[in-house]
Specification:
Mean pLDDT: 87
Number of helices: 2
Shape: globular
Largest sheet: 2 strands, antiparallel
């Protein structure tokens, strides 16, 4: 949530999801919603752009975003 708020997109653009999010310690967390955002991978001249779905949660994490293998391999 902290990284999402820093982007100043606005919570009105979050879409509600009905499934729980499981943390690394296996506890369940309620998501704030999800959002699809453009992501750029790599450096010139081999950059690639993709649209990625992010689930926004309001818990303290060491990372701003966790990107799954399907997104990495699809780009």
């Amino acid at each position: 949530m902290k990284a999402f708020d820093a982007m100043m997109i606005g919570r009105k653009y979050l879409t509600q999801v009905s499934y729980p999010v499981i943390e690394f310690n296996r506890s369940t967390v309620r998501s704030e919603g999800n959002i699809v955002l453009p992501v750029r991978f790599g450096e010139r001249p081999t950059t690639r752009d993709a649209m990625a779905e992010f689930i926004v949660v309001d818990v303290p994490l060491a990372y701003n975003a966790i990107i799954g293998r399907p997104l990495i391999h699809d780009t």
